[in-house]
């Protein structure tokens, strides 16, 4: 650890937070974590990470429990909780924020920065998109299966020193980074994949990519829903080439059969990021008067399912 490196606090050190925390630890930063259910396990054993990148396991510099009082505020606060309707992410990070703390979001979905930007107008935001396959396999235990690239930029646009300095640290820790001037456009681009695939995998009971694409009519359904996302993005001012549909399908076929993060949440009985990944896209479609019948059908069906699940849990 080096005194000239920025201090890092990960709020929500699950699969993503633990992994990218390990990368920054490897780059020489002091990395602390805020945990909820896995607090005891991490205090006892640290964070254990199985990865082809080598031994990434580490003991965080401080392990806090949600609700603790911080000893100091961090240079970068990295928020990696799931984006869920019942979770006020701004209130979650408020106790840990200092005047000069930069906020980093490594979370899926569209329009997920706004609530944070409104709550902390004076703190810069670096918004990141993770292209990685990583999951929790036990309390404080993570399996990094593949990939790891981050696309990142200043929110709402541009590239500032906060993004550049953080990118350099991730690169030093061994991760490929693409800095972007248009992070919102990049969110749309990622949603081109996540918005059709993630919710459909849940509707299909936790299906992997091969099952989705190889079932009769599956690829056609994905193509139609991707076209709908493309039309909404264009109406919102983020046009993308229609070639991306073929590219996404071909790229997905090249990967080994893969269960996305929403499929894993479904299988593990956790809440799913339905609004962040699908509901916000449908809401923007409605604002612009773009018809998205397939996306809307999927959204309503999954809302019914979430409602039933909530009623069963009561
Ligand atoms: N996993 C992946 O491969 C990918 C994930 N993503 C995105 O990254 C984001 C994070 O996903 P992922 O890491 O997989 O999710 P996880 O469920 O593994 O991690 C979320 C973590 O947040 C914690 N948390 C929730 N609420 C609180 C709280 N109040 N205080 C402290 N900790 C809290 C959870 O703890 P608890 O156990 O108590 O609930 C959990 O440890 C999501 O937006 C996801 O879509 C993007 C690309 C790939
Ligand atoms: C793109 C992908 C599939 C992995 O990076 C993802 O975002 C997810 O699992 O939700």
UniProtKB/TrEMBL annotation:
Query: What does it catalyze?
Result: (R)-pantoate + NADP(+) = 2-dehydropantoate + NADPH + H(+)
Job description of the protein: Catalyzes the NADPH-dependent reduction of ketopantoate into pantoic acid.
Q: Name one GO cellular component term.
A: cytoplasm
Where do the Ketopantoate reductase C-terminal domain residues begin and end?
184-305
Looking up Pfam families in the UniProt record yields:
ApbA, ApbA_C
What are the protein's GO molecular function terms?
2-dehydropantoate 2-reductase activity
Q: Where is the Ketopantoate reductase N-terminal domain?
A: 8-156
- The domain of life is Bacteria
Family designation: Belongs to the ketopantoate reductase family.
GO annotation terms (biological process): pantothenate biosynthetic process
Which key words are in the record?
A: NADP, Oxidoreductase, Pantothenate biosynthesis
Record's keyword annotation contains Transferase: no
E.C. number, please? 1.1.1.169
Q: Give the matching InterPro entries.
A: 6-PGluconate_DH-like_C_sf, 6PGD_dom2, ApbA, KPA_reductase, KPR-Related, KPR_N, NAD(P)-bd_dom_sf
Know the name of this protein?
2-dehydropantoate 2-reductase
Q: In which pathway does it act?
A: Cofactor biosynthesis; (R)-pantothenate biosynthesis; (R)-pantoate from 3-methyl-2-oxobutanoate: step 2/2
Q: Which organism is it from?
A: Marinobacter nanhaiticus D15-8W
């Amino acid at each position: 650890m080096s005194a000239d490196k920025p201090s890092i606090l990960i709020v929500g050190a699950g699969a993503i937070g633990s992994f990218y925390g390990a990368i920054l630890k490897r780059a020489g930063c002091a990395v602390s974590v805020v945990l909820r259910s896995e607090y005891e396990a991490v205090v006892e054993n640290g964070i254990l990470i199985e990865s082809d990148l080598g031994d990434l396991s580490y003991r965080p510099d401080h392990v806090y429990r949600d609700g603790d009082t911080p000893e100091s505020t961090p240079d970068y606060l990295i928020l990696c909780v799931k984006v869920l309707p019942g979770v006020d992410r701004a209130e979650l990070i408020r106790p840990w924020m200092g005047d000069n703390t930069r906020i980093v979001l490594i979370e899926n979905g569209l329009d997920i920065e706004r609530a944070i930007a409104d709550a902390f107008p004076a703190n810069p935001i670096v918004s990141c998109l993770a292209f990685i396959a990583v999951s929790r396999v036990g309390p404080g235990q993570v399996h990094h299966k593949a990939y790891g690239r981050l696309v990142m930029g200043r929110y709402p646009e541009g590239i500032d020193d906060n993004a550049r300095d953080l990118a350099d640290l991730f690169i030093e820790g061994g991760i490929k980074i693409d800095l972007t001037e248009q992070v919102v456009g990049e969110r749309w681009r990622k949603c081109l994949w996540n918005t059709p695939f993630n919710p459909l995998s849940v509707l299909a009971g936790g299906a992997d990519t091969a099952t989705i694409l190889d079932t009769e009519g599956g690829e056609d359904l994905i193509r139609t829903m991707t076209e709908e996302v493309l039309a909404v993005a264009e109406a919102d001012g983020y046009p993308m080439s229609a070639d991306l549909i073929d590219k996404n399908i071909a790229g997905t076929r090249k990967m080994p059969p893969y269960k996305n993060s929403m499929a894993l949440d479904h299988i593990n009985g956790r809440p799913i990021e339905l609004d962040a990944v699908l509901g916000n896209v449908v809401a923007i479609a409605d604002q612009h008067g773009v018809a998205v019948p397939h996306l809307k059908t999927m959204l309503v069906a999954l809302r019914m399912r979430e409602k039933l699940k909530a009623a069963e849990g009561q």
